[in-house]
Amino acid sequence: ELLVDIGSGPTLHQVMSGCEVFNKVLLTDFLEVNRQELRSWLQDEGGCSLDWTPFLQHVCKLEGRHRIQDTQPSAWTEKAAKLRQVIMDIVPIDVNHPQPLALDVLPSAGADCLVSSYCLESVSPDLAAFTRALGHIGRLLWPGGHLLLIGTLGMSYYIGGPGLKIPTIPVNEAQVCASLKESGYTLIRLEVYTWPQDMKLFDDASGVFFVKAMKE
Ligand SMILES: C[S@@+](CC[C@H](N)C(=O)[O-])C[C@H]1O[C@@H](n2cnc3c(N)ncnc32)[C@H](O)[C@@H]1O
């Protein structure tokens, strides 16, 4: 029923598949500037500075959504409309706080699923804080709810913009698994993608992990 995206940033790629499955999607970020960017896209009045069209088209392709006749609406415009329909709100979050969202944001039962991409390892000062953040966001889930966590491996910094080098906490697979266990999740699946050398343009990450876990 309810999918919560943790640390959405100004981006939507991480909820483009989830919007087909969940009736409600809640977007969250620490920074108002990012929440405003998402609001601009949601309102669809031309104020959005990012064009999500190629992402929507690519996700449609991955999902096997095609339109043969030109007279029909394209699959990606339908996906954009679906996404706008299910996004229920865009709210502030702080994963370093034991109560990451304002009290009245979620229904009392909690969320059914959390998705979070490239957030926790980039906002945690050390591994202990990364583990605590996993515990904090876990409180938003009901027992039996799921976490889809995407993050970088071995990344000590990323370039956030010209001259802006942002320090991050490098984590490895074993640390991610141990942090999940310590924070009350059961790991269901872990996949790792190792970056080719020539992909290291904006950071020093060695790869990316994809986790599916369940709140105990
Ligand atoms: C690297 S970006 C990831 C954005 C997006 N999820 C993606 O996949 O591209 C990390 C995000 O975490 C947000 N952030 C920073 N501090 C945070 C905090 N304490 N709690 C939650 N999010 C935070 C930042 O504003 C930023 O949007």
Key terms:
216 residues; alpha/beta; Rossmann fold; seven-stranded mixed sheet; two-stranded antiparallel sheet; 6 helices; 9 strands; 28% helix; 30% strand; binds S-adenosylmethionine
Describe the fold and architecture.
It holds the Pfam family NNMT_PNMT_TEMT. This is Phenylethanolamine N-methyltransferase. Keywords: Methyltransferase, S-adenosyl-L-methionine, Signal, Transferase. InterPro entries: NNMT_TEMT_trans, SAM-dependent_MTases_sf. The chain has 216 residues and is α/β, with parallel strands linked by helices. The protein is built from 6 helices and 9 strands, in the order E-E-H-H-H-E-E-H-H-E-E-E-H-E-E. The protein has helices spanning 32-43, 53-62, 75-86, 120-123, 127-138, 173-182, and strands spanning 2-5, 24-29, 87-92, 111-117, 141-153, 157-161, 164-167, 185-194, 207-215. Helix 2 crosses helix 3 and helix 5 crosses helix 6. The protein starts with a strand and ends with a strand. S-adenosylmethionine binds next to helix 4.
SSE topology:
Blueprint: E1 2-5, E2 24-29, H1 32-43, H2 53-62, H3 75-86, E3 87-92, E4 111-117, H4 120-123, H5 127-138, E5 141-153, E6 157-161, E7 164-167, H6 173-182, E8 185-194, E9 207-215
Parallel strand pairs: 1-2, 1-4, 2-3, 4-5
Antiparallel strand pairs: 5-9, 6-7, 8-9
Bound molecules: S-adenosylmethionine.
